[in-house]
Amino acid sequence: MFRIRFSFVLFTTFVLLLGAVVLAQDAPQPLGITEFEPCQPFDNVTVTVVGDAGHNLAPYDFWKDDFAAMGITIEIVEVPFADVYQKLKTEFVGQTGAFDVVTFYPAYIGDFASNGYLLPLDEFMAREPAAVWDPHQDDVLAPFRELYNKFGGQTYALTIDGDVLVLMYRQDLFDNADEQAAFKEKYGKDLMPPETWDDWLQVAEFFTRKAGDTLAGETLTEDFYGASEFAKRSFSYAWFMNRAASAGVVYFDENMNPRINEPGAVAGLQNMMDTLKFAPPDVLNSGYDELRDLFIQGRTAMVVQWTDVPKKAADPTQSKIAGKVGVGRVPGTEVNGEVVHRSMMPVGRVVAVAADSDVPEAAYCVAKHIAYNRSLEDVSTSLTGLDPYRQSHLDHPEAFAALMGEENAAAYLAGLNQALADGFPDIFIPGSAQYQDALDLEVNRALSGEITAQEALDNVAAKWNEITDTLGRENQVAVWQQALESYRALGLIE
Fold it and tell me: Could you tell me which CATH class the domain 45-163+347-403 is placed in?
């Protein structure tokens, strides 16, 4: 038996009020903060990059002139968000050589690296001159560097997106005197951002209103919802795991026996199911885009989301609530008289060089350019969904000031630094895609009312045992125990 103990940085509850006066952003320009030298020109090579479709591939267009100066032409292949694993796996197994730089969710690193699909990067990273080749991994925050970039002691990937979930809420509603008085009268306590998941339900109930009702002194013209969830099939498991992990639930014990159907997990899933009473009727179709828009278009009081959403909420070209947003700690669960908080670190993105690439040096130069050389520019714009993952990102609020203003940019990064204290990683051993898909499927069945929370998680435990047996229990136990050693080395478990 082991206990998760996250201590990346000391955490204190924080509130970020995103400024009412912000600037819409053009494509980022070089900031001149990060020092590097480009790779020497190649002989007009083409590097094919693959990743999930949309704004997170934008940096390859932002820096096309940089790549051209290196003698590199970029070809981009876009894959639907939920299809990345299957697309990459199919090409890897077929040894097609279709891709040079592969972008994927770090949970897959155990699968891809252990099967020889990725090129180890350590030799490139150690080359001289360091200004050209060194991606400065010591600058990458330890959870991403150690858990999501490495496998078996070697580096196979470079982080380009540091995902962690945070609570976002309508600060203006929580500060409204009429709403505060009504909450105090109804519940006998002060209105404040939820500390626990029980508080979350209570606040969600309070703010749920019908068209024609009054909210903060205004008559609503459409229904308003107290909270919503990422309830769409794909990554809803992470919103459930925020709750389960805060109750002390870990994926497996030391011998890969599932712990996912323990009472704390069942209670967490029931809490997520209960939230749907205060969410939009089409909540089962809410993924990242829908949940983001629901909040920044002013239709809900609270969401838990990735840390790029505050940047979009601060952009008045995208948001109706700029200047009205608070960001805080994901709610927790009271355990032995103490509230324990856990924030999932789902998705994220890493880049790697495909083992069958015909241009591995050029591919590495492209990966390193995105992961280090221009990374500060890429995470400080609202034109991508990429989140800070380096200490140097957190140390340069001036890079974010064009979007948020100086004061709020500093507060945003300080809060993000603190949020990482609660970080809880995805499964990242071989089979992670199968384990997570099985969990996501059953979570969705419970959310749709098809089965109970207990039935859903019992099904997950049974399926996880099948997956482990199919992959080879002895080997899975060995790699899981290696993962636990990585956790211990970081102080994540005792």
Answer: alpha beta
Nearest residue to 273 via CA among 234, 239, 233 = 239
3-state secondary structure 61-93: HHCHHHHHHCCEEEEEEEECHHHHHHHHHHHHH
Interval 86-104 mean pLDDT: 97
Q: What is the DSSP letter of 272?
A: H
Q: How far is 213 from 207, CA to CA, in rounded Å?
A: 11
Let me know if 469 is exposed, middle or buried by CB neighbors in 10 A (0-12, 13-18, 19+): exposed
Residue closest to 303 by CA, chosen among 168, 432, 203:
168
Each residue's pLDDT tens digit, 239-249:
999 999 999 99
453-471 vs 263-275: helix crossing angle, rounded to 10: 120
Instruction: Give me the residues paired with residue 343 across strands.
Output: 423
**How far, in Å, CA of 350 to CA of 15, rounded?**
29
Ramachandran angles phi, psi of 36, nearest 5°: -165, 165
Nearest Cα to Cα of residue 106 among 288, 307, 308, 349: 349
Q: Are 471 and 431 in contact (CB under 8 A)?
A: yes
Instruction: Tell me the C-alpha distance between 264 and 17, whole Å.
Output: 33
Query: To the nearest whole percent, how much of the chain has pLDDT over 70?
Result: 94
- pTM as predicted: 0.84
Phi, psi for 312 (deg, rounded to 5):
-70, -35
On whether the CB atoms of residues 24 and 383 are closer than 8 A, the answer is: no
Q: Which residues contact 436 (CB under 8 A, 6 or more apart)?
A: 107, 237, 426, 427
Q: Coil, helix or strand for 316?
A: coil
φ/ψ of 167, rounded to 5, equals -85, 130
Distance of CA 483 to the CA centre of its chain: 20
In 35-176, alpha helices (H): 59-62, 64-69, 84-94, 109-114, 122-125, 130-133, 142, 171-174
pLDDT tens per residue across span 442-470: 999 999 999 999 999 999 999 999 999 99
- Closest alpha carbon to 175 in 15, 389, 388: 15
